[in-house]
Amino acid sequence: MQAKKKEKSLMRRIKRIKTINKYGKFINGFFLNEKKTKIKDINKNRIKEYSFQLYNKQKIKKKFLIKERQFKKMCSISKKKNKPLICLIEKRFDNIIYISGYSRTRFEAKQIINHKYFLINKNNNNISSTILKIGDKIELKKKFINYDRIIKSLKKIINVPNWLNINKKKNQIEIVKEPDTFKIFEKEMINFYIK
């Protein structure tokens, strides 16, 4: 009896692994056997819509290293101010440090900010989720200029976006204009939280 139960549980695991390998990373969140379960077309469309919203949201969260709570807050701000969500995400303090080439990864940018390497408008700031405005100036503190991690990251050649003005001699970054937004499914992500 116990051997049969073990075999059945093993077979279930194998089925799950096969379905994961078949559909890759993008799965609806649960597994459906087409032979056993019959779902109406309406429910299928709902599941597809939800999974599509969830997939896009998770993709952006992983790329920009944003937590769920912060992402919710940014969605509500973008809805109130009628600004594109991706603009707000691009103008985050940690993202600007990463884009400008002062860190090799976004995680390293967060760490550098947490250790107070930079000044925003000549004021200390160690909050990486700060959303910056046009005209804000970010400056590297003089005592951190000769640090190895910053020298290594500045050696890399980076395509700097046109909405940032970087002066590497003075170690200053200035936001000149709004970032250019690329096509993204913003309505779907905002609707994900409205429900």
Automatic annotation (TrEMBL):
What is a GO molecular function of this protein?
RNA binding
Which superkingdom does the taxonomy of this entry point to? Bacteria
Pull one GO CC term from this UniProt entry: ribosome
Pfam families tied to this protein: S4 (PF01479)
InterPro entries registered for this protein in UniProt: S4_RNA-bd (IPR002942), S4_RNA-bd_sf (IPR036986)
Q: Which PROSITE patterns match?
A: S4
Q: Which residues cross the membrane?
A: none
Tell me where in this chain the RNA-binding S4 domain is found. 91-155
Keywords, ordered alphabetically: Ribonucleoprotein, Ribosomal protein, RNA-binding
| Matching Gene3D superfamilies | Ribosomal Protein S4 Delta 41, Chain A, domain 1, RNA-binding S4 domain
Q: What is this protein called?
A: SSU ribosomal protein S4p (S9e)
| Source organism (scientific name) | Candidatus Vidania fulgoroideorum
